[in-house]
Amino acid sequence: MKIHVTVNGYKKAFDIEPSDYLLDTLRKYNYLSVKRGCDNTSCGVCTILLDGKPVPSCSLLSAKADGHSIITVEGIPKEAEKLSEHFGHEGADQCGYCNPSMAVNVHALKNEIQNPTDDEIKEYLVGNLCRCTGYIGQHKAIKSYLEDEK
Amino acid sequence: MKVVNHKLPSVDGKGLMMGRPGYTDDLADPNALIVKVLRSPHAYARIISLDTSKAEALEGVELVLTSKDFDRRPFTRAGQGYPEPSPHDKFVFDEFVRYVGDEVCAVAAIDLVTCEKALKLIEVEYEVLTPILDLEEAIDNEIIIHPEPEIHDMFPIGFEPKRNIAAAYHMEVGSVEETLKDCEVILKQHFYTHAQAHVMMEPHTVNARIDYQNRLVLYTSTQTPIHVRRIISQSLNYPLSKIRVIKPRVGGGFGGKQAIHGEIIVSAVTLKTGKSAKMIYTRKEVFESSYTRHPMRFDITLGAMKDGTLKAIDCKVLSDTGAYGEHALTVFMVAGSKVLPLYNKVDSVRFYGDVVYTNHTPAGAYRGYGAIQGNYALESSIDMLCEKLAIDPILFRQKNMILEGETSPIFEIMGEGTEGTAMMMESCKLDYCVTRGLELIKWNEKYPRVTLPNSKVKGVGMAIAMQGSGIPYIDMAAATIKLNDDGFYNLMIGATDIGQGSDTILAQIAAEELGTTLDNMIVYSSDSDLTPFDTGAYASSTTYVSGNAVVKAAKQMKNMLIEEAEKVLETKVAFDGITFTADNGKEITLKELSNRLYYNEDQKQLTATSSYVGHKSPPPFMAGFVEVDVDIETGEFDIIDYVSVVDCGTTINPKLAQGQVEGGIVQGIGMAVYEEVLINKDGRMITNDMMTYHIPTRLEIKNLTTEFAISYEESGPFGAKSVGEIGIDTPPAAIANAIYNAVGVRITSLPITPEKVLQGILKLKENNHE
Amino acid sequence: MTLEVNNYVKVKSLQEAYELLLADDSNQIIGGGAWLKMATKPVNTLIDLELLKLDDIVVKQNIITIGANVTLRDLEKNKDIKEQFSGILYEAVHQVMGVGVRNLATIGGSIMGKFSFSDILTPLLTMDVSLEFYKQGIISLQDFLATKKPPKDILLHIILKQEKGNGFFKKVRKTALDFAVVNICVVHKDSGFEIVIGARPGIAVKASKAMTFLNRQSNFSEQVIQSAVALVQEEISFSKNLRASKEYREQLVAVYVARGIKEVTQS
């Protein structure tokens, strides 16, 4: 079947099977920032924005996305770049595998919650697991990024 | 120093955050065949018949690979130097399957759906055998897990497969039995540590293709590209010279990607079909069919005098290597060699035991291997001994622990799989680490416990730890620096960046030595055709071993540059990284010199290659302190802060070093508290996804306080030692000690769950009533 | 394993959805689809109700009507939900995995799944909740949960009566992304007490005996509370799974029911 979606502001038509998940469809169409991690909603590395809201693409059927708008990190390069500078400053990036999803999620957080508290930041991002950093550096980087963006 | 010891952003951080393709599957041929493995549903079984005809007949199936497609040649997937200290006990496919998830055969098909359909069409008849699922029942059991005659060790490692023993070891300094006779206080205790899963975010991923020179090219998410190339060549009997292994960005390894995973099967598919092929492990496969940490049992005996002098340590260990013996001996030995020297003043010390086969998922390399298990047992025992002695555990450690300028006989006796190397502790700030940690955690205000409102009690606990920096006389690394026109450099290294930031810190080292900036040092790792030899990212070797190779190559390049500049200026020159200045005031810039060398006069390429092999393995040290708040009615507890004070010599990049320590601490906390591999009675892993196996999230980690001691290791690059593993070692013991200090419950079997804590509290209450 | 699905239809009317649902035994309505991967049975047609909206939360005359397609995230952000019984439903939803999953999962899917691990059914059972189906009409949540295999029908709305009262919710979990080891709700409202225990690991149930006992009490001394706890333990059964033993669940429930009663009777 065919679905019609807007990806990063551009209208696209994708050929899919009814059983395809959006993670696989996006990777098939070369949106390679979307990563495969746990494959069952638990790790967050496949997060994309569907109509502006973060969702795990590993568990969203592509067919369900028909008619909706999708944003991957490729669609928010300037924000990702800025966020990466804060990560760099805190030494908060290691393997980088979860970072595109982190950027997407932080973008959504910024739009959804004004002046988030420490707890609100942690709770918003808790679905984004990281096995490398120990989280504290990430948290400092995200906080300083959000401060800067005010 | 201008570049080293500076907090510079990693060289790849921005690009990866922006989603630029760089990981193995990002670089797969879009038309690659999909390869899937049919895996055993039984913990132990013999394959009576295997009928693949229906699968082969399915449209879209390219081929099915079974044991018939491979020479019967045992090898080890361990991913170590050669000859390996692991038994060659694995065949690509065998008549026996030895754990749930073991490999039966493989299918290559046009797409995933076809591949999965084909797997279902394969008919296997098994003779189901009784498995061994308890490490304590393995030795001399009538069930033999490896009956096959062809398997062997590469040199003596105590390999006795007929007794289910993959490796064995024994060493003794002095006589423990004799010393214990004279000791006034003796502590005996056993401990159990459990299997831990690596849970790197990127699953094991590999793809292969044949290139236009008819060579086999692999992209693979590995820590050991050079070993991968060698093992493919050995197992498939295919010329090493026709294999190229490229390691792109790797989404975490932690030891889990030291061994080889799908590489052999995918290579076989590509060689047989001539077509590109790829394999991505499902998360279930990552859990069930890669590796775990070795579960161990420790029997510890400590002997001391009433004045707090530790006299003897006896450590008997039983280790579970699961179905195959990857890293059986080496992990076992590290449980002694990177733990026992912490208390170097004892009269006698003994370390011995066996590594056994069971029908569990194989155990393999995992950050801090052996050391975290041994540290938990020893550092828990030390606190228990101190209680018996009625001596403060901090004072006891300060009296008995290793100090700068000292040594331990163990360094010479025990290496990793071989004999060790004698060395003095030329840099050891462990005493400072302890003192500073006490201040940071406010020990005196909290030790041993503070009663809080709402049924809560706060406790603090601590542990000390050491690691190594590579394996002396075995781990070799090389680096090549190439000068380009316009005066910038390429640094080409075999060292394997798996996310720990080695590309960045090695470029920092090269840039420092050559007096240039980080952006002028373009780093590339690793490609077996293009980059020089390096054993890979394991054993905490990269900063120290590869870093030293980079220093040597950079020095060589500097000398070459000065020589060329002196030819031009016809006199002695000084070089500040940008300009060569002669005694007479004449100058030439690096940019001018480079352009002249490549375009104008006396043209030549300047390339410097150098290599390094360690002659010692200077240990980093740390003291870890933890504060826990325990709910005495439910046993639940929060980890309020974890203080780490680390001596890793010079931090090449202080922020990245901090990231290594903190990442290690959180993995250690995970092992200590939240993570547990559970196996059912049939031997099936029931925690085989991330809904049932829990790594810490950002909500559990409330605070981490990390500092570095000022320390300089003379033999290290710019004074550096390793920092990759040291962080993971202390949490199990420190948390166990903190829980004990808070509520008086001693947990001797990991993980430290709220349930165990509550049972302990209730038992204490019961005993008090009696 | 890849899910086997032959068709995916975003239906244009309830009648279309209903006819499709009856057309094939394996046809199924998809909520957010967040837990679809846990299903193993092949599906012929997945029926998506997205175009029918059903994604509003409307408050009228003390009745909160929640469309079946309302996501857990939208439910969490609704201020009326946050007000009910000290925000217990908000707390329960808020602790379901990460924001991403809550943006995907719907309240309809969470109820129809009758998940034994559910954190949402526990607070819902303390409330006056009924479900509006396309054909069956309105039935109470409790009756729905009690029916072993309800007839094929389409859940349209969740109807929740606004009530005043104090609430307590506790989810015991290993990490923030874990399912509950056990979850406990205690509510004190005008009509009396409600105590519900979920993830036992069986599905959420009411502790009716303890509720009846508490409803007859006028003061809530430690002794009264412990009597109520004993009744909970007598009435409700627990068992072990990979998250905890039966005994530990019993111990946790004893502590948290007591704490819950104290909390809801204090203010």
Provide structural commentary.
The complex is a heterotrimer of chains A (150), B (770) and C (267). With 150 residues, chain A is an alpha+beta fold. In chain A, 38% of the residues lie in helices and 15% in strands. Chain A has 5 helices and 5 strands; from the N terminus they run ββαβββαααα. In chain A, strands 2-1-5-3-4 form a 5-stranded mixed beta sheet, covered by helices on one side. The longest helix of chain A has 14 residues, at 77-90. The mean pLDDT of chain A is 97. A 7-stranded mixed beta sheet of chain B has the order 3-5-1-12-9-10-11, with helices on both faces. Chain B has 770 residues and is of the alpha+beta class. In chain B, helix 5 packs across helix 6 (263-273). With 267 residues, chain C is an alpha+beta fold. In chain C, strand 4 (57-60) and strand 5 form a beta hairpin. In chain C, helix 9 (208-215) runs antiparallel to helix 10 (222-235) and helix 10 packs across helix 11. Chain C is globular. Classes of the chains: A alpha+beta (150), B alpha+beta (770), C alpha+beta (267). Chains in contact: A-B, A-C, B-C.
Alpha-beta classification of chain B: alpha+beta
Assembly state of the chains shown: heterotrimer
Q: How many separate helices of chain B?
A: 19
Round the Cα radius of gyration of chain C to an integer and report it. 19 Å
Q: Could you tell me how far the N terminus lies from the C terminus of chain C, measured between alpha carbons in angstroms?
A: 52 Å
Order of helices and strands of chain C: EHEEEEHHHHHHEEHEEEEEHHH
End-to-end Cα distance of chain B, whole Å, is 66 Å
Estimated share of beta-strand residues of chain B? 15-25%
Share of residues in helices of chain B? 25-40%
Topology, number of strands of chain C:
12
Q: Report the average pLDDT across residues of chain C.
A: 95
**Spatial arrangement of strands, main beta sheet of chain B:** 3-5-1-12-9-10-11
Strand content of chain C: 15-25%
What gross morphology of chain B would you assign?
Answer: globular
The count of DSSP E runs of length 2 or more, i.e. the number of strands of chain B, is 27
Mean pLDDT of chain B: 97
